[in-house]
Every structure is written in structure tokens, then in C-alpha cells.
């Protein structure tokens, strides 16, 4: 009976540990990659099921600096509160950046005024054409290297063949000379 009871107890503890604690925030997506000119949208919600008043209190911030405070083990962050503008819209936890530029790339976090831990998201801005150019350059370099390799192999083969023919010719000449001596 004793082992069975401890297993039950362990299961009970594990269930508690895996239940979302009250007042946890979560965001979707956690990471987003867009091209310049596109819009980026993140949604922040309460894991325990938001009531609309609480959802209205959520704020979004841009993290401008992170320094590792080794003494406390916590990151020291500098963040700017984001407000509605022609570029940014924040409404009930939903955060939209319109017409994204490379300058918008970085870390953002969702917060509320209570002591719930803030949650962070990352915005990545990438340029497809430059990927293609990079890919093209890489391909061209690879092709050039392959060409050099193939040319090298061909030259080496020809050289080896010539050397072999030379050796055979020499052998024949020696044999002829030897036969002539025999006679
Ligand atoms: C909703 O959240 C607000 C702010 O935290 C709180 O004052 C209010 O009592 C909550 N309402 C319900 C129905 O839980
Ligand atoms: C961390 O932030 C506190 C203020 O919140 C400041 O006094 C301290 O100097 C900062 N530490 C580092 C390492 O930036
Ligand atoms: C931003 O604007 C929307 C309407 O477009 C509004 O519903 C929302 O409350 C505003 N957010 C803030 C933080 O003022
Ligand atoms: C998007 O931003 C670029 C550069 O900042 C600007 O030239 C363009 O007109 C903007 N497009 C829209 C639809 O706002």
C-alpha cells in the first residue's frame, strides 16, 4: 500500500506543477519572420482564460536593451511602452506593426500592470532577394570550384596517361636494345 500511495502523491504533485499558474500570460507567435513592407501581428492572452477587462489592460513594449545582471541572475531590460500610432496598433492584447522595416526587427514583450511575468516575442525581418543573391553567389562559387576540381582531375589523368605511355615506350626501347645485344 505504501508504494502505491507515494506514486499517487507524486502524480498529484506533477499535476499541480503542470497546471498553468493563475495569471500566466502567453503570446502567439513567439517568433515571427516577415519581409519589409509586410505587417506583423502578435497576440497576447491570459492562459487562464481572459476576462475582457484584463485583456484590455495588456500593454506591449519594445525591448531596447538587455544586460545580464549576473549578481541576481536576472536580465536587466530596458523597454519602451508602445502606443497607438500610424505604424503600431495595440488593441486588447493584439499588437500590429504595419509596413515593417528592418528597424522594427527585435524583441518585444507583453505585460500587464500586475506582477504576472512578461512574455517576450521576436520579430525577424528578412529580405528574400538578398537570399537569392547570396544563394546565387554561393552556387556560382561552388560551380567554379567544381570546374577547377574537374579540370585538375582531367589534367592529372592526362599527365598520368602520358607518363604511362612514356614508361612503356622506354621499356620497349630497352627490350629492343636488349634483344639486339642477344643476337
Ligand atoms: C476581470 O478582471 C478585472 C481586472 O483584473 C477584475 O477587476 C474583474 O473582477 C474581473 N472580472 C471577472 C468576471 O472575473
Ligand atoms: C539594473 O537595473 C537597475 C534599476 O532597475 C539599475 O539600478 C542597475 O544599475 C541595472 N544593472 C545593470 C547591470 O544594468
Ligand atoms: C488603439 O486604437 C484602437 C482602435 O484602432 C483602440 O481600440 C485601442 O484601444 C487603442 N489602444 C490604445 C492602447 O489606446
Ligand atoms: C512603407 O514604408 C516605406 C518605407 O518606410 C514607404 O516608402 C512606403 O510608402 C510605406 N508603405 C505604406 C503602404 O505605408
TrEMBL record:
Ranges for domain Ig-like:
20-120
Record-annotated membrane-spanning stretches: 136-155
The UniProt record lists the keyword Secreted? no
Identification of the protein by name: Ig-like domain-containing protein
Q: What does the UniProt keyword field contain?
A: Coiled coil, Membrane, Signal, Transmembrane, Transmembrane helix
SUPFAM superfamilies to which the protein is assigned, alphabetical:
Immunoglobulin (SSF48726)
Query: Does the entry feature the keyword Metal-binding, yes or no?
Result: no
Record Pfam families: V-set
Q: Where is the signal peptide?
A: 1-23
Q: Which residues form a coiled coil?
A: 153-182
